[in-house]
Specification:
Blueprint: E1 2-4, H1 9-19, H2 23-42, E2 48-53, H3 57-69, E3 75-80, H4 87-98, E4 102-103, E5 112-116, H5 128-139, E6 143-147, E7 168-172, E8 190-194, H6 200-204, E9 213-215, E10 238-242, H7 247-259, E11 264-268, E12 281-283, E13 292-295, H8 303-316, E14 324-327, H9 336-342, E15 346-349, H10 352-362, H11 374-379, H12 382-391, E16 395-399, E17 404-410, E18 415-421, H13 433-446, H14 451-466, H15 477-484
Parallel strand pairs: 2-3, 2-5, 3-4, 5-6, 6-7, 7-8, 9-18, 10-11, 10-13, 11-12, 13-14, 14-15, 15-16
Antiparallel strand pairs: 1-9, 16-17, 17-18
Helix pairs in contact: 2-3, 3-4, 7-13, 7-15, 13-14, 14-15
Length: 487
Amino acid sequence: MKKLYFETDSLDKNAREMFLLTEDIMMENAASGIEKIIHKKTKGKPAGILILTGSGNNGGDGYVLARKLSQSPYKVSVLKVFEPKTEAAKLQHQRAVSAKVHFVPGLIKSDIIVDCIFGTGFHGEIPDEAKKIINKANKSKAFKIACDIPSGMDRNGTIKNLCFKSDITVTMGALKTALFLSQAKDYTGKIILQNLGISYENFTNNAPVTPQAFLLEKKDLQLPVRNKENQHKGNFGHALFISGEKEGASHLAGLSASAFGCGKVSILTEREINNFKPELMYTRELPRDISSVGIGMGLGTNETAFAKGNNIFSQIINKQSLPVVLDADIFYNPYIKDFLLNHKKIILTPHPKEFAVLLKNTGVIKSFGNEFSISEILEDPLTPVSAFCNVFKDSILLLKGATQIISFYNKKENKPEILINPLGSVSLAKGGSGDILTGLICSLLAQNYKPLDAVTNASLALALASKKIKNTFALTPEDLIVNIKTL
C-alpha cells in the first residue's frame, strides 16, 4: 500500500527547508528521471526528441532535460508552447539557450515527445494554442512521456475535453491521487516515481500534509487460508444471497462466494428453480446460521422488489453482528436510509449511476446544498464518497469503475479515509462482474474477515482475476470464477 497525495507543492517546500535543497537541484533530478527513461527506450541509439514546454516549473523541467540531452546522440528540439514566466523556468530557459538547444516553431516528426506543458496546478480549459499541439502530439506515432502529470489533467484527475496521452508518466517526489483515478487511466500509461534528490521516506515523512488516499497493490492481497486440517464446512461461514427478478445475478454471487472459500452458500428465493446449481442451497426463509447477506443483485426496482428488500431489512436490522452487502437495485429503495442509520455492518458497492441515486435517497448533498450528479461523481469521485462516509460512519463504500474506490470513516483519525485499487482490466465491463464482487465480499465476511479487509481483498481478487485472460473482450463471469480459483 502506497501513499497518494492531492498536491505535492508543500512536500517540495518542506524538502527545500528541511534538507536545504534548491529548485535547481530538484529540477535536475526531475529531468534526470526522464533522461534515464529515454536512454532505456532508445538504448543509446540516435533518436529525434521533441520537448513541449509551458510557462511554469514543469516547463523548467523540460528545459533542463533539453540541456542534459543536447550534444548527445539525440536530435533534441524544444517547442515553447508558452513563454517561461516563473523565475526558475526563465533561468532554465537561459541555460538551455546557452547550451545551444534547438528551438522549433511547431510540432515536428519525432521518435519521442516529452510533455512539460502544464503541471499539477493546471485547472479549467486548455488554451487554444496548446489544444492544437496536444491534439497533434496525441495523433503522432511517437513514444510519449509526461512530466509529473499529463497536460490537461487537474489535481482531481478531471479531464475536461483533452489531455496529453502518454505511454509513461514520470511523476515527481510522491505519487499523486489524480494519476490513479478512472478518467486518468487512458492517459497516464505506466506510472514511474522519480525522487527529487532525497529518498521517498525523507520526502514524505514528517511532511506538512497527510496522504489524501492509499494505493492498493498486488502484494496487499491476502487470500483465504485453511491452515488446519481438522475442520468442517461450518467453520467457514454461511453466506446468503437474496434472489430477485433476475435470478442469475444471485447465482453468480453464490458461485463466486463458494469459489472463494465460503463453507455454505444459500439463495433465498420464492421461485421454482430453473437453473439449479448443486453447490448452492435454496431456501424460502432466512437460515438461522447465516454469517453474511448479499442483497440487491438482480432484485428489481418496482414496488414488489422494494417490499422484498424492506422485508429482508426488517428481519436483519437488529442482527448488528451480521454483515450485509448492498448492491445494484437496492440503492433505488427509498427506505434504504433507515437501514443504513440502524445497522452497524454494511458494505455498499454502487457504480456511479447507482451512487447518484443512493446519495439522493439518503439525503447526502454537497456543502452548499445541491445534489451530486453522475457527471460530478465521474469527474471528482473522492468528494462524494467522503461526504457519504461522513454521514454514515459505520458503513464502507466501494465505488465501482475503471478504478475501484473504497471509502470508510476512520474513527481514530476522525475523518474519512480512501483506498484506491487501479488494478482492474476493462474486461470487467460485462454484466455479472459486480455480482461476483458481492459474492467475494460476502464470502470473506462469512469467513470472519473484518469488513474493511473483506472489501479490500475481494476488490483485489476481482481485479487480478480479470487479468488472467489474453484479451480484453472475452472475459465472462464464469471465467472470472475460474480465474479466482487460480489466484
